[in-house]
Amino acid sequence: MSDHSSLHLLIGGEKLSGGSRDTQDVIDPATAEVLGSLPHATTDDLDTALANADRGFHAWRKESADKRAAALNKAAQLIRERAKDIGMLLTREQGKPIKEAIGEVIYCAMLFEFYAGEAKRTYGRSLVRPEGQSARVIYVPVGPVAGFAAWNFPAINVARKIGGAIAAGCSVIVKPSEETPAAGLALVQCLLDGGVPGDVCQVVFGVPDEVSRHLLGSPIIRKVTFTGSSAVGKHLVKLAADDLKVTTMELGGHAPVMVFKDSDVEKVLDTMVGAKYRNAGQVCVSPTRFLIEEDIFPAFRDGFVERAKAIKVGNGTEDGTQMGPMANERGPQGLAKKIADAKDKGGKLETGGDRIGNQGFFFEPTVLSEVPTNAEIMNEEPFGPVAIVNPMANADAMIEEANRLPYGLAAYAWTNDPKLRGRLAADVEAGMLAINGANVSAPDAPFGGVKWSGFGREDGAEGVMHCMVPKTIHES
Ligand code: NAD
Prior knowledge:
The chain is α/β, with parallel strands linked by helices.
């Protein structure tokens, strides 16, 4: 398995680096030291990848579903065998605690196993016609896919771009984040070692806007899938529109957490504080706006602050670390500005609010309370270790606030009232709603959002079907 000392492109199964290619440093966010040097694809490299993807697609789409499933299952087995090593690469380049990193890698194996099963279940249907005629709907792969993944989940984001496409019979060119390249490369290597041809799954790196413009400018690419900010997602959808390519967008969020007064406050805190600071809050479904019914607000706020203060922050490679550094320099800088703005607008800083130390990109687990809705942080994804805890009058006010923003990815609610649970399921504008829990992601469950959080779905049967198009055959 390659590591940070031998970073490369993967084009047509070949590991390419050196030559006239530009390079960029990959940084360890815990120390700000250089881990390795990443080659950028030249335009010739990208053109070769496109030609390969075209050829690879026409062969892969004709393979049996059994063969595609076998390759995904074999890749999953290799991922499980290599999980500790891939996890360590991931922690070094992204920062999260090693236990979280290994968990992320194992999730990729689970996802490929699920998709292996789904590859065999892309059923069509027969339509009723008079005797002597027939009509049937079959599902065919959409074509070569270009996938762009963000740095917050270097393995899962890449696996989500690839898994459904490979299962459906598409070829895929994926660009993991240049800031976290090694985990994605290791994952794709498992697919190639598992039997996926080198022209069916390829990896490129470069200046993101240049790579996406080049790939989206080619008629070979028929689908674009992206995980990242809503701003970049809108830009890519506009580029894709020029050639009417299919798009799947997994974009930002600003998840509300509605805690009603019939909840067990200690249980909510035990679950949601860990969920908030997981991956230092750099999670698109991170619980962010805690909307607490007034009667339980003081106990909830105080319990949250107490737990946030107890979190052990450190290098993700060390045992016992509960929260690592933020993944890049932009993280602490952006967060500090948003916290200052929240204080200016009248929000209270309950704990945290500053960088830790002078090495790497560490930030204190932070709690703000009673933050007004005109503060930047109440409107823009903070993407960091900060919780906003606000008192709310009643269910009407909580649902109104939950739906106020243009985002709609994940939402969370805590109540045992069955009538209220039904109302939340109907009225909360989100792609995923967790009631009395923190988990919104599972291999068999569609993952994605509404409004500015995007469209299309990854994971679940939908993750494969969104890489396919229906074709109707009429016979007389
Ligand atoms: P960004 O929005 O520029 O980049 C996000 C990701 O998109 C990066 O991995 C980047 O390589 C990629 N990207 C950027 N421009 C691209 C382009 N033209 N074509 C293809 N890929 C492109 O900025 P950022 O500083 O990395 O993140 C800013 C904010 O984005 C974060 O604070 C967060 O709010 C949001 N974000 C969301 C997610 C998510 O999972 N929803 C992931 C990462 C970032």
